[in-house]
Design brief:
With about 350 residues, the chain is an alpha/beta fold. Helix content is about 35%, strand content about 25%. Helix 3 crosses helix 4. Strand 6, helix 3 and strand 7 form a beta-alpha-beta unit. The protein has 2 domains: about 210 residues, 3-Layer(aba) Sandwich (Rossmann fold); about 100 residues, GMP Synthetase, Chain A, domain 3 (2-Layer Sandwich). The two termini are about 40 Å apart. The longest helix has 18 residues.
Length: about 350
C-alpha cells in the first residue's frame, strides 16, 4: 500500500464474479444496473439470457467482471440442457460466486438447488443476493430459513474447514497430513433491487469487499467484451420476445449472418430460425407487422449501442429441430464459438 502526501492510497481491486441463479431471478437486470449500461437483454420471459455475457464494472475501488449466465430451470429439450450446463459451469473458475434469488416469490426448487451446490462445493467467496426488495411481500426470512435447513441436511457449518478433495488420497498410507489453509466463508447476504437507482449499492459494496487487490482485467473504457454479432442477435431476440410474448419465444433462434459496415451506416442481415411452418407465420405476423415492429424497435437501440446508424434486415427460416443442430448452435454462441 503506497502513501502519498501522508494519505494512504487504497490499492485497486479486481475480481471475476459468476452471476448465477434460477431463470427470471433478475440477474440480467442486476448486471445492467451495476455496469451502468445495458449489456444484456431483459425480459419477463424465462430463458431470455442464453449466453454467458461479460459486463464490466469500473469504479474507484477497482474492476469487477460480471459473468451473466443463463438461468437454471427445468430443462426441456437439448437447448434447455445446454443452457443449464452453461449456468452450472459458470460457477467454476471465478473469484466470487454471486447467487441471485427472486425474493419476491417463495423459494423454488432451483433456488434450493443452488443453495445445496454452495453447501457442497463451499466456494471460498460467495454472496447471496435477495433481489426485488422493492416488492411486497418479500420472503427474506423464508430464504434464510431454507439455507439453515440446507446446512443442517448437509452437516456443514459456515466457517468449517474445507475437506480434502480426494479422501482416498488423503487416507493413503504414508500421506503427510497438513491442516487445510483455506476455510469456508459463510455467504454474505444482501438485498438488492435492479430496477431502482442505488438498488445495487449494497451488493457492489459486498463484492468489492471480497475482491482482492490486483490489476484490471480489461481496459477501463469498455463495459462488455461480448461479440457484437451475438449482442445484435440478443437485441433482436429480445424484441421478438416482447412482441410475441409466450407464443414461440423458446423455439426462436436468431443468427446474425452478416454486418456490412459502410461509412456511417451498418446493414445487418439477420435470420430468425423456427421449428415449424406455423411458427413462421406467427413470427412474421399479418402482412409482416411483427417483423416490422421488431425492426423499428431494434434499430434505434442498436444505433445507440454502437454509435452508428444500424439497419436490420430480418428473414424467417423454418429449420426443423434447429436446437439440435450443432453448427447453428455454435454460430449462435451456445457451444463456445464467438463470432
Amino acid at each position: 500500500m503506497a502513501i502519498v502526501d501522508n494519505e494512504e492510497v487504497v490499492p485497486r481491486k479486481a475480481a471475476i464474479v459468476g452471476v448465477v441463479g434460477r431463470t427470471n431471478a433478475g440477474k440480467s437486470t442486476l448486471v445492467n444496473r451495476m455496469v451502468g449500461e445495458k449489456v444484456t437483454i431483459v425480459s419477463p420471459v424465462e430463458q431470455t439470457t442464453r449466453n454467458t455475457i461479460r459486463g464490466i464494472v469500473e469504479d474507484p475501488r477497482g474492476q469487477l467482471v460480471l459473468l451473466d449466465t443463463p438461468g437454471l430451470h427445468k430443462a426441456v429439450g437439448p437447448l434447455g440442457k445446454l443452457l443449464n450446463g452453461m449456468a452450472r459451469a459458470s460457477s467454476a473458475g471465478t473469484d466470487i460466486l454471486l447467487v441471485v434469488f427472486d425474493a419476491a416469490h417463495e423459494p423454488q426448487l432451483e433456488d434450493e438447488g443452488w443453495m445445496r451446490r454452495v453447501a457442497k462445493e463451499q466456494p471460498e467467496k460467495c454472496v447471496f443476493a435477495l433481489n426485488k426488495c422493492d416488492r411486497s411481500p418479500f420472503y427474506e426470512t423464508m430464504f434464510k430459513d431454507l439455507w439453515k435447513e440446507v446446512l443442517g441436511a448437509s452437516c456443514l457449518v459456515p466457517g468449517a474447514e474445507l475437506k480434502h478433495k480426494d479422501s482416498r488420497e488423503s487416507n493413503a498410507p504414508g500421506t503427510k497430513h497438513e491442516a487445510p489453509s483455506t476455510r469456508h466463508q459463510a455467504p454474505i447476504w444482501v438485498t438488492a433491487c435492479g430496477v431502482k437507482p442505488g438498488g445495487c449499492d449494497a451488493l457492489l459494496d459486498a463484492l468489492y469487499g471480497l475482491a482482492e487487490p490486483g490489476p484490471a482485467l480489461f481496459p477501463d473504457d469498455i463495459v462488455t467484451d461480448y461479440p457484437r454479432k451475438l449482442a445484435i442477435a440478443d437485441v433482436v431476440r429480445e424484441k421478438l420476445i416482447q412482441h410475441l410474448h409466450d407464443e414461440v419465444p423458446h423455439e426462436v433462434g436468431v443468427l446474425v449472418e452478416d454486418i456490412d459496415e459502410r461509412k456511417g451506416c451498418w446493414n445487418v442481415a439477420v435470420t430468425i430460425y423456427v421449428n415449424r411452418p406455423s411458427q413462421k407465420g406467427i413470427v412474421i405476423g399479418q402482412r409482416g407487422c411483427n417483423l416490422r415492429s421488431v425492426r423499428m424497435s431494434a434499430c434505434p437501440e442498436l444505433s445507440d449501442m454502437f454509435g452508428v446508424k444500424v439497419n436490420v434486415e430480418l428473414w424467417v427460416k423454418v429449420e426443423p429441430n434447429w436446437m439440435k443442430n450443432n453448427r447453428l448452435l455454435t454460430e449462435m454462441g451456445y457451444l463456445g464459438a464467438e463470432r
